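Figure-free illustration: sequence to structure, shown twice.
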Amino acid sequence: MVERGGSAAVNLSRSVTDVVLLDGGERDRRMRRITDLGLPVHDQHWLAAPATAADPAAEPRAAAIPQAPLVLPRGGVIDLRMSSSAALAPQWHAIASWAPREHCEIDVVAFVLYEDEQVTFDEDFVFYGAPENPAGTVRLLTDGPAEQTIAMDLTSLPPASRKVVVAAAIDGNAMFGGVGPVQVTAAPGRGAAPLARATLDAATTERTLLLAEFYRRGPVWRFRAVGQGYDHGLDVLARGYGVDVTD
């Protein structure tokens, strides 16, 4: 799938363009929703030759599908499209999603870092307890138990800020190896067609996971898929970035 320029979606999100049924897939509880959305459904042989197995009935819908996002590997980088006018610049969204888990709570957070890879103030740490920094340029949007978004007004960040790190942390003693793949997507605003997407699926015992970075390279902002994990909790990660965390 990746060799053909696509990626497997973790959830049935708006980025899904086709559904491939493996053995027993017809009994999946999401099939009703798939039918309601009119998504093309294929068997697993379609992966070998999707062009020859295309569904003609799906052609009118395909015309409305935006260009597929670039699929990035771990460490992959892409330049972000930015307007020369601050008023017209998009508010970039980093959207993290994973398969729902009943006994596992995941929190997505962000750190606004400066030249020394540290926050300047504790308020540069955006998380569920402080979902917005004082200037409102970085915000946490909770879209449900299995999808959360960090919204960023990059052009309005202070010139001295160099990077916004987006991370995820598991509450309690659970580990990301039990969560499965985490998908992170970069999109220029809510509902906009995503520019890039990465599926991070190599975690084992990690309890915190660096998902992505939005960073400056000269006058250009760039997006990097990271996928680096640590066995320690969110408090240790925050202290590493200079946040004064109260026990």
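We now fold a second protein in the same way, so the two outputs can be compared directly.
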Amino acid sequence: MKEHWENLNALTAPLLAWYDANRRILPWREEVTPYRTWVSEIMLQQTRVSAAIPYFERFMAELPDVGALASVREERLFKLWEGLGYYSRARNLHRAAQRIVSDHGGELPQTVEALKKLPGIGDYTASAIASINFGAPEPAVDGNLLRVAARVCGCGGDITDAKVKKEFRARLADAIDRDRPGAYNQAMMDLGATVCLPNGAPLCARCPARGFCAAYREGLTEILPVRGAKKPRRAEERTVFLLLRGGRLAVRRRPDTGLLAKMTEFPNVAGSLDEAGALIVLAQWGLAAKALVPCGTAKHIFTHIEWQMKGYLAEVDGEGAEDFRWVDAAGFDELAIPTAFKKFTALARERL
């Protein structure tokens, strides 16, 4: 498959003209600061734009600058993030904000190299911040840019391969508009998100690259880009307990490292337990069940793991494990419970 890299350079001018007429109106674009760009890009890493907007606006209302983010209590930060998932993003934002305050006078650094030294900021996010806010001619290479570039150029390389990504980055760096690098990156993002679609047929009739796009000309839009096969997720069974004692609910804090680190969760154990097994676990926690009721099943997909959960609701007597915390309805509403437990969270609120 012949690659037409020159098509990327041909796209630059019509792309920017298309963007000026069709760009999405987004809160972080209407008021542009390095802080707002940074927070929006971190939110958008694993979240759709439409879903991220209300979170972004609430986040900015309460934490309008780096100093506010650096000093916020972790539990409150998690509450603001609740529902977005991938909480390591919030933890890295917090750590990076503290570093920016201590090492950079409260201002985000302006170069890609300096930005990448901050927790949670990689090549893409650093390039987005530097290009949009500081005029650096750095392509922000994400899935949208790779998809557009692969189709426009007719590139059949695996876009998940590091060498192929490196080649795309070099080609995009050559094509980026030096006068409007931030607009170029955002235009490519918008083109990939609204026209050169990842799922379903791309809307080629609306595309500024239609006249010279290799994939469109050669009938390859359903084939390109090429992605390597993903590794299958590991399935993990878990049993979740909603434990009530005197109008209070048991929760606990997850370990400081690993999946959902430091998050508040309902007590749970590995495996899919029957009622006899569940009663044994309660006894090990120093609890006796007045009543034990199955409360359904749920599934949650992480990047590499799939949790298959079943739940029990129990009225109990006893002290419970040392790491249990018993909260009333008001206390529960202040906690950020991971989205993985969404079904059980709703049940818990009904009972408190």
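Summary for the second example: The chain has two domains: 6-218, 234-351.
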